[in-house]
Design goal:
single chain; about 220 residues; mainly alpha; transport; PhoU_dom; PhoU
Length: about 220
């Protein structure tokens, strides 16, 4: 395989991963739209997107493995392919979080809509921004931008903690709101996990560009 052909395959791999990213992001956006509007028809759109996301994950993995087997790449090309495999898995799990949120929204639909002391859309906005920023770092091979994503994870964790305390207090004060509160707690946790996946993607970009692993020392420069 010529270098030109190899580079074309790398470009194809990158393009497919960005398609995967778009699908995962859309699934999260739809799940939060379903939460905000309590529109269960939007939940169905999220459920229907999952098989396509899973199928694309398998295709990307297979293409990456084929390149590893045929080309035996080294250095930055090897790190790129390894990073794509890991980012691919994180994006599939972002899609899983969207499905989990949609399941909770569907369960909440059995109860009267109630104002809860948690800003799920704001938490979703921050977690989604982390994903977009991490992917922008991937597109631009920008390790510094990826590093900045890691700092946002603390904000998502703090919002998730605040949701836990607020909803736990509400359950004690108004036990009749326990089902709605527990579902909202789990949705907040799902979004915190989206932030974790964005962090993983950012760490993989740093690994690809700089050549060292920051997974257990994320603020290393």
């Amino acid at each position: 395989m010529t270098r030109i052909k190899f580079q074309q395959n790398l470009d194809d791999l990158k393009e497919r991963l960005l398609i995967m990213a778009g699908m995962a992001e859309q699934a999260i956006q739809r799940s939060i739209e379903a939460y905000s509007s309590r529109d269960l028809s939007i939940c169905e759109l999220v459920f229907r997107s999952e098989p396509a996301i899973n199928r694309l994950e398998r295709e990307i993995d297979q293409l990456a493995l084929d390149l590893l087997a045929m080309e035996q790449p080294m250095a930055i090309d090897l790190r790129f392919i390894l990073s794509v495999i890991r980012i691919n898995a994180d994006l599939e799990r972002v899609g899983d979080q969207a499905v989990n949120i949609a399941i909770r929204v569907r369960e909440m639909g059995a109860f009267a809509n109630t104002d809860l002391p948690v800003d799920i859309p704001k938490l979703a906005s921050l977690a989604s921004a982390m994903v977009r920023k991490a992917l922008q770092a991937f597109i631009e091979a920008d390790a510094e931008l990826a590093q900045s994503v890691l700092l946002l994870d603390d904000q998502v964790d703090e919002m998730n903690d605040a949701a836990f305390y607020a909803l736990s207090s509400l359950i004690k004060e108004k036990p009749e709101l326990t089902p709605q509160s527990l579902n909202a707690l789990i949705i907040a946790r799902n979004l915190e996990r989206v932030g974790d996946h964005a962090t993983n993607i950012a760490e993989d970009v740093i690994f690809w560009v700089r050549g060292f692993d920051v997974r257990h020392n994320p603020r290393a420069d």
